[in-house]
Design a protein that fits this description.
Layout lengths: L10 H13 L4 H16 L1 H18 L4 H15 L1
């Protein structure tokens, strides 16, 4: 379920945003929702970290690197840094 949010903007800004939304085939509410969703995604540290782990996992899979290979690499680095 959605809820309303009231914001105040200068009339000129509202007109510009409305024109941009219309040029993209959206209404003003759709555009503002998209902007807010993108804003929170970009600043949500938990989501950022989850996305980063997903990317790392994909790269490891692409390169056929197993869990034991990772553990061996960690042990080797720790041994070198000891």
């Amino acid at each position: 379920m959605t809820t309303q949010m009231i914001i105040r903007v200068e009339p000129g800004l509202k007109n510009k945003i409305s024109q941009l939304a219309k040029s993209e085939g959206k209404n003003l509410s759709q555009l503002v929702r998209e902007l807010l969703e993108n804003y929170t995604k970009e600043r949500d540290m938990g989501a950022y970290i989850d996305n980063l782990w997903d990317k790392i996992g994909c790269k490891l899979s692409e390169n056929n690197i197993s869990d034991s290979s990772i553990e061996d690499a960690i042990r080797e680095v720790r041994r070198q840094n000891a």
